[in-house]
Write a structure and sequence with these properties.
This protein has about 475 residues and is mainly α. It folds into two domains: about 35-250, Glycosyltransferase, CATH 1.50.10; about 310-480, no CATH class. The chain has helices at about 5-10, 20-30, 65-75, 80-90, 130-145, 150, 155-170, 200-220, 225-250, 255-260, 290, 315-320, 330-340, 340-345, 360-365, 390-400, 405-425, 455-470; strands at about 35, 40-45, 60, 105-110, 115, 250-255, 295-300, 310-315, 355, 435-440, 445. The protein has a three-stranded antiparallel beta sheet with strand order 3-4-5, with no helix packed on it. A hairpin with a 2-residue loop joins β1 and β2. It is globular, with a radius of gyration of 22 Å. The model is unreliable at about 1-10 (pLDDT under 50). InterPro entries: 6-hairpin_glycosidase_sf, 6hp_glycosidase-like_sf, Glyco_hydro_100. One of its GO terms (molecular function) is beta-fructofuranosidase activity. Its EC number is 3.2.1.26. This is beta-fructofuranosidase.
Length: about 475
């Protein structure tokens, strides 16, 4: 056997303690679940958090952090907890004028009273856009998986959907179908120059609106409403326009970059639309040439007038595959890109949240010298094990949707996924299920990383479930099924 293949097999050789590791992870997960009004309603952000410091919120139920939790509970058919979580979030949906329709970033029960955070207690006081966008997605996944149509068409759920749609589908000064948000308003919750129309938010908007359409469709079958029909028509058009916008302005390959670099600038008038955002060729980073190779492609991080963000964001691209924003050939181009850049994105602890990191003056200027986001740490090039299951699910979903497409490539992706799974299996228990990892290879536990982080634990359990236990369950994530 060639030495290269021998070394590779050595790296991915199964751990004999797999069953014990999975069992222990499940025990940690059960400990993370807490009750609201006497019923289990979600998981705390981390098992180990200073209970004597009321300012720290790792003991609260975060909507964003509970996305993998709820999906894992759906795979286990524990529908009552998911329904309770969705209901509590719905009860806490904001009705104040400025944030009307926003779902809480987090909530906790103290002295029999529910306390919600809409961003007023966060560092920087920013409201989480992704928390609100995830709720309809989770609601639709729950209704479809549990077949609880009664909940989906209930007046409470339908009103919550309309409040959210009123929030995101309204006239603004911006003429494109994207949702504009400030810095720190989604998973990347520290300054990273991601204001505007960041990829993750726009992909979530697409999936959120698609889920709202499905839930409204259910309701329209049980009642005749002209207003509902008009809202459905508007939302379907918005979803279509948003996807076309993302594919036109965010998707890049080696070929599209060649065109972009040679486009005319300073165009004026309705007929001049080759370079709508007036992107100067000098702004295209040199690292893209090797990064893209010949057949790779990905969705860039942001499009802003004259200031596109060419960084690669793992979660946004994974969700774009999972939710069907990208076409089948584009998904395979993304897989090739990840395969080509595996030393950057997977390294020793899969996977890196953002590449490349900002360093020196760029880090100082764009993050405000944020000590948590120093180069190769946290959201500035750090490694987050909780992201792997999103990417893994997109690979497994693609295999199910297109079983005969590029068998060689998909075999390589399956091998990569297996290797990443065993890497986490062998490392995470020793590293106390840390939140994130630092350094170019992701070897070191993050400087300010919490241990026994819930979405690290449940992300591993989801990867184990979809890869080893019930591969067919990954189809539940297909919104277009």
């Amino acid at each position: 056997m060639p030495e290269r293949f021998s070394q590779q097999r050595q790296r991915v050789r199964p751990n004999s303690n797999e069953e014990a590791v999975v069992k222990r992870a499940q025990e940690h997960f059960e400990r993370s679940l807490i009750k609201i009004n006497g019923h289990l309603a979600g998981s705390v952000a981390a098992l180990e958090h200073p209970a004597n410091n009321d300012a720290l919120n790792y003991g609260e139920i975060f909507l964003r952090d509970n996305v993998p939790v709820m999906i894992y509970l759906l795979t286990q058919k524990r529908y009552d907890i998911v329904k309770k979580f969705l209901t509590v979030c719905l009860d806490l949906q904001s009705t104040s004028y400025q944030t009307r329709g926003v779902f809480p970033t987090s909530f906790v029960e103290e002295k029999d009273e529910l306390i919600a955070d809409y961003g007023q207690r966060s560092i920087g006081r920013i409201t989480s856009a992704d928390a609100s966008l995830w709720w309809p997605i989770l609601c639709w996944l729950y209704v479809r998986k549990s077949k609880d149509t009664t909940f989906g068409i209930s007046q409470k759920v339908q009103r919550g959907i309309q409040l959210l749609l009123d929030l995101v589908l309204h006239p603004t000064f911006e003429g494109t179908p994207v949702l504009f948000v400030p810095d720190c308003s989604f998973m990347i919750d520290r300054p990273m120059d991601v204001w505007g129309a960041p990829l993750e938010v726009e992909v979530l908007l697409y999936a959120s609106l698609s889920s709202c359409i499905e839930l409204m469709d259910l309701s329209s079958k049980h009642q005749v409403s002209r207003l509902l029909d008009q809202r459905l028509l508007l939302t379907r058009q918005w979803v279509h326009d948003l996807r076309q916008f993302l594919l036109k302005h965010y998707w890049v390959t080696s070929k599209t970059m060649q065109v972009l670099r040679r486009r005319p600038t300073e165009q004026y008038g309705e007929d001049q639309h080759q370079n709508e955002f007036n992107v100067q060729p000098q702004i295209v980073p040199s690292w893209l040439q090797d990064w893209l190779e010949n057949r790779g492609g990905y969705l860039i991080g942001n499009i802003r007038t004259g200031r596109p963000d060419f960084r690669f964001y793992s979660l946004g691209n994974s969700l774009a595959c999972m939710f069907g924003v990208l076409t089948a050939p584009q998904q395979r181009a993304l897989f090739r890109l990840v395969l080509h850049n595996r030393q950057h994105l997977m390294a020793q602890m899969p996977m890196r949240i953002c590449h490349p990191p900002m360093e020196v003056e760029e880090w100082q200027n764009k993050t405000g010298s944020d000590p948590k986001n120093w180069p190769w740490s946290y959201h500035n090039g750090g490694h987050w094990p909780s992201i792997l299951w999103f990417f893994g699910a997109s690979i497994l979903l693609h295999e199910q949707r297109y079983p005969k497409a590029d068998v060689l490539l998909m075999g390589q992706m399956r091998s990569l996924l297996e290797e990443c799974y065993w890497s986490q299996l062998n490392q995470l228990p020793k590293q106390k299920w840390a939140e994130y990892f630092d350094g170019p290879t992701g070897t070191w536990v993050g400087q300010q990383s919490r241990t026994y982080q819930t979405w690290t634990i449940v992300g591993f359990l989801l990867m184990h479930h979809f890869l080893k236990t019930s591969p067919e369950d990954v189809s539940m994530l297909d919104l277009n099924q």
